[in-house]
Amino acid sequence: MTIKVKYKGISPKQQKIINYVRAFWLERGYPPSIRDIVSGCSLSSTSVADYNLKILEKMGYLHRHREVSRGIELTDRNAVHKRNIPIIGTIAAGEPIPVPNDDNWDVTASSDTIEVTEDLVRNKDGIYGLRVKGSSMMDALINDGDIVLLQNVKQIENGEMAAVWLKSEMEATLKKFYTEAGEVRLQPANNQMKPLFIDPANVEVQGKVVAVIRRLS
Amino acid sequence: MTIKVKYKGISPKQQKIINYVRAFWLERGYPPSIRDIVSGCSLSSTSVADYNLKILEKMGYLHRHREVSRGIELTDRNAVHKRNIPIIGTIAAGEPIPVPNDDNWDVTASSDTIEVTEDLVRNKDGIYGLRVKGSSMMDALINDGDIVLLQNVKQIENGEMAAVWLKSEMEATLKKFYTEAGEVRLQPANNQMKPLFIDPANVEVQGKVVAVIRRLS
DNA sequence: TACTCTAAAGAACATATGTTCTACAATTTT
DNA sequence: AAAATTGTAGAACATATGTTCTTTAGAGTA
Question: Which spans in B102-161 are helix H?
């Protein structure tokens, strides 16, 4: 199905072209070449296509990548804002929390990623995911198999949920984080459970929990 | 939300290639050329890329259009589509579970929606969302403010998580559902908690839990 | 009319890019 | 060990494709 949009300030020919590009792209999964446009829009020459594409680009309807075959990118007004978040490892009670680095940070190289809509991680940089292993995070209301999205931050504000590594206990955990009078209070998400009071030197904050995603069935 | 699966039966190199193709496509709006793949995946020759692409095509991971520049089309399983899920109300212990109807079903009219990528709710019809109010669902590892995605189903399979309304108790709850010898067993997601045994006549299954999304900070 | 500007034709060109071939290394199978 | 299969390298080739140039036609304007 092709959705035709009415565009302002452009000729019928240009309107035809932009609709053709969109339809082609939706149907085939890659953009049309200049000559595809020529035949698809019954144009007489590649230069006519080029001429009109230049105008459309200047008006902001699309972006062309120079010298790239089929390098037409629609500036999509109904663009889906999505982000590929690399899942760099698993988090489990007895294992160190994987820390993002240049290697696993590369989304294109990462074998495992989760794609989320932008509003889940709005405006935030340094987001990565961990797959939860085991049921040790139940006090954080997080189950085996859940995916936790973390943000790589230097500082945690009081009350935020953090992924912390307890050095002497050699344990990873997810807790609400509070600094209080020379010590750190770690509070389970389930408020009815008792907090943990720890020596700050024993705590390594590895990230801030931004979201949790659980898929069932 | 798209979760990239570990692909079976293909080499790490092929896995890297397919991820690269998808990332490239998502980011730039058009597919990569063979030589883009060569440099992006640190391959040594175009023929290596070609060789592996042929295998990936044979295995159905992508489709190549012969003699077409950048004519790589990702198979549907890799395509990312988004869905707007209407959030038709809240779910709380003491309140009836809102039931979808023609009115609140209309995504365009619904005041509140959540946008998710297709494979979180893959192939499923009748998906709607409820915002969790209160902390009564903690035994399901679900917190105040979480969003629960439900599917409007007639039948629940044993072991699936269901949103049920307990008539005489006038209570909504989320539990794993089992029918057993003339009664219904409702098991909290936290397996260490005790199950509930209920007369089937007292149970109204309102929906099947498909996913849980928790946003923090 | 003459001038300007926009749009179109068609051809020619440069190169980006898919394809293929041969040789060889690495791995697995016999 | 020998053979077969699988994967890698590099180059060469054919062509798909973006770019540019010149010429021409129409439309509006002074």
Answer: 102-105
Residue B6 CA: distances (Å) to CA of A101, A114, A196, B59: 21, 12, 37, 14
Cβ–Cβ < 8 Å for B140, B175: yes
Which tokens belong to A26? 């939706």
Highest mean pLDDT among B74-78, B120-124, B204-208: B204-208
Other Cβ atoms within 10 Å of B181 Cβ, number: 5
Q: Which amino acid is at A195?
A: P
Q: Which of residues 63-102 of B touch strand D (CB under 7 A)?
A: 67-69, 71
For residues A202 and A186, give the distance between their C-alpha atoms in angstroms, rounded to a whole number.
12
Best residue in A68, A103, A217 for a mutation probing chain B (most B CBs within 10 Å): A217
Beta-sheet pairing, B82-91 with B127-132: parallel
Residues B11-21: pLDDT tens digits?
A: 778 878 887 88
- Helical H runs in B11-163? 12-28, 34-40, 46-58, 102-105
Asked if pLDDT for residue B185 goes beyond 90, the answer is yes
Domains and CATH numbers, chain A: 12-74 (1.10.10.10), 82-213 (2.10.109.10)
Asked about A42 being catalytic, the answer comes back as no
pLDDT at A153: 84
CB contacts of A69 in chain B (<8 Å) are: 33, 69-70
What letter represents residue B106's amino acid? D
Question: How confident is the model over B60-77, as a mean pLDDT?
Answer: 80
Find the mean pLDDT for residues A59-67: 82
| Contact in structure between B211 and A214 (CB atoms under 8 Å) | yes
Torsion sign, CA atoms B160, B163, B166, B169: positive
